């Protein structure tokens, strides 16, 4: 395995989902579990899923790396090729599992058959497949990795029914960074689907498991999540960008997006716990915002000059009456929403902000965090077009989308008879919303500084604008 770990140390930093800042030191193998290859997949010697830890990193992370070991002369998808290693005295090709149909087929089978895999030897991990009650498994036909920037790796599985006709495909998201505890992407979407919500894709099933962490001991978490895939459907980011570029009115779509958001919040409030916040909860939330601003100043020192203005916004929110806390989306933006024909808006990726701890992301939160996320996204549409044009464009478009979205949310809650926030004054709600909008823009400063420096001006300008607009007179 040491040869494989060396190969992975070189390969890992080039992956979009690698969370470290530089090449990892020697990776540590925490455990592994094996999947059985089907007789349909020839030339496969082994399918093993390695759980490796980048222990030398400032914040050590555990990654899930499925590996398909194939004959050295196998025809391998170039994007998935990791390298050659010696296996039982013989050279073999190592393939990143999601890029290999043998892994996709085996993973889908683990879920559909409610299978289990107990790794062998020291540091063995365990994995359990669990189908959603009533989910029907069609026959695996082929698979491919979803392209695009992703924090995880999603595999699209094309399926065939008993008559050999193409059936609705599946998307299996393989979580790359593992944490002990529930992954909200799985728990929230499964709860929404079980409640009959049409605002998330139908759930097919999940893989969860256990592994040993040298610091934390025995951990349990989610490894993969499978849902129906809406083929050929665009996300709202692309729809909105095109509309703004063409100067097309987006207010009806923004209004219905607000209604869909209200529907999801109302369902989550019904099926998951709700908590009335006390002053300690509020203080802690505001403290997290202040801490985040500190991190952003380290990424972009020019923000230091805004410290008093930022604090004014947060202090006003701290003194406000807050709405009930409940489970929310957590990292809501236009890229997380699909416009599905005959179904309407469908929400994806309930994992929460990748830069927050899992414990935070699994706690009841403020619905305004989601509203703020989407408002920031309208600003990003204008910002992305402005970066491209070299001058400010589409600001009126963003303002109109913003107003329609908020109106749609209010109308949606009213239509559902949901009370969230209704007992609280409009001024208090506004103070909380503005604080979360500012907090999200500050989060985006950190995110863009680390991932897309060309876009850093978009949230940086927003921080300035939001603090100016809400400065105390
Ligand atoms: N069920 C689905 N149907 C169609 N497209 C999907 C589906 N799930 C995800 N996608 C596409 O995959 C992209 C990434 O999915 P997401 O869950 O956000 O992954 P990540 O956590 O890696 O960012 C989405 O923006 C969307 O375009
Ligand atoms: O989708 P992820 O969970 O990976 O979210 C992260 O990446 C997003 C970018 O892909 C980032 O979103 C920011 O950019 C979007 C445009 O690309 C914009 O619509 C969002 O409003 C903006 O926040 C997200 O913040 C980050 O967590």
Automatic annotation (TrEMBL):
The name of this protein is: Maltokinase
UniProt keyword terms in alphabetical order: ATP-binding, Carbohydrate metabolism, Glycogen biosynthesis, Glycogen metabolism, Kinase, Nucleotide-binding, Transferase
Q: Which domain of life is it from?
A: Bacteria
E.C. designation(s): 2.7.1.175
Signal peptide region: none
Q: Name one Pfam family in it.
A: Mak_N_cap
Please give the organism.
Gulosibacter faecalis
Q: Subunit structure of this entry?
A: Monomer.
Family membership noted in the UniProt record: Belongs to the aminoglycoside phosphotransferase family.
Q: What is the lineage of its organism?
A: Bacteria, Bacillati, Actinomycetota, Actinomycetes, Micrococcales
Q: Which reaction does it catalyse?
A: D-maltose + ATP = alpha-maltose 1-phosphate + ADP + H(+)
Q: Where is the Maltokinase N-terminal cap domain?
A: 11-100
Q: In which pathway does it act?
A: Glycan biosynthesis; glycogen biosynthesis
């Amino acid at each position: 395995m040491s040869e494989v770990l060396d190969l992975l140390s070189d390969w890992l930093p080039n992956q979009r989902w690698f969370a470290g800042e530089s090449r990892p030191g020697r990776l540590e193998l925490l455990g592994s579990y094996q999947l059985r290859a089907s007789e349909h997949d020839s030339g496969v010697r082994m399918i093993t899923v390695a759980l490796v830890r980048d222990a030398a990193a400032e914040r050590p992370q555990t990654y899930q790396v499925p590996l398909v070991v194939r004959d050295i002369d196998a025809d391998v998808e170039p994007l998935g090729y990791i390298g050659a290693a010696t296996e039982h005295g013989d050279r073999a090709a190592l393939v990143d599992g999601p890029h290999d149909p043998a892994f996709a087929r085996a993973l889908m089978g683990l879920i559909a058959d409610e299978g289990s895999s107990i790794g062998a030897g020291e540091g063995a991990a365990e994995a359990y497949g669990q189908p959603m009650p009533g989910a029907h498994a069609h026959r695996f036909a082929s698979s491919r990795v979803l392209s695009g920037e992703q924090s995880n790796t999603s595999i699209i599985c094309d399926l065939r029914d008993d008559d050999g006709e193409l059936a609705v495909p599946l998307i299996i998201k393989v979580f790359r960074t593992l944490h002990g505890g529930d992954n909200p992407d799985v728990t929230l979407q499964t709860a929404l689907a079980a409640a009959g919500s049409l605002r998330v894709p139908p759930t097919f099933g999940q893989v969860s498991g256990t592994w040993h962490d040298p610091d934390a001991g025995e951990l349990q978490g989610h490894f993969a999540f499978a849902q129906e895939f809406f083929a050929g459907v665009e996300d709202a980011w692309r729809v909105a960008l095109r509309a703004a570029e063409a100067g097309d009115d987006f207010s009806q779509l923004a209004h219905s997006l607000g209604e869909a958001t209200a529907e999801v919040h109302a369902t989550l409030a019904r099926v998951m716990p709700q908590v009335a916040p006390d002053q300690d909860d509020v203080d802690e939330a505001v403290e997290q915002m202040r801490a985040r601003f500190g991190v952003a100043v380290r990424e972009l020192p020019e923000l230091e000059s805004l410290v008093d203005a930022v604090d004014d916004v947060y202090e006003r929110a701290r003194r406000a009456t807050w709405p009930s806390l409940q489970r929310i989306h957590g990292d809501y933006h236009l890229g997380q929403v699909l416009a599905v024909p005959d179904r309407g808006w469908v929400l994806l990726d309930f994992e929460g902000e990748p830069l927050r701890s899992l414990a935070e992301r699994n706690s009841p939160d403020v619905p305004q965090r989601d509203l703020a996320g989407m408002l920031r996204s309208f600003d990003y549409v204008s910002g992305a077009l402005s970066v491209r044009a070299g001058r400010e464009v589409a600001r009126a478009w963003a303002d109109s989308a913003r107003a329609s979205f908020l109106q749609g949310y209010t109308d949606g809650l009213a239509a559902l008879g949901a009370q969230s926030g209704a007992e609280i004054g409009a001024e208090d709600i506004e103070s909380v919303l503005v604080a979360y909008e500012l907090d999200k823009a500050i989060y985006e400063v950190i995110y863009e500084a680390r991932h897309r420096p060309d876009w850093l001006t978009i949230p940086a300008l927003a921080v300035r604008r939001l603090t100016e607009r809400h400065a105390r007179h």
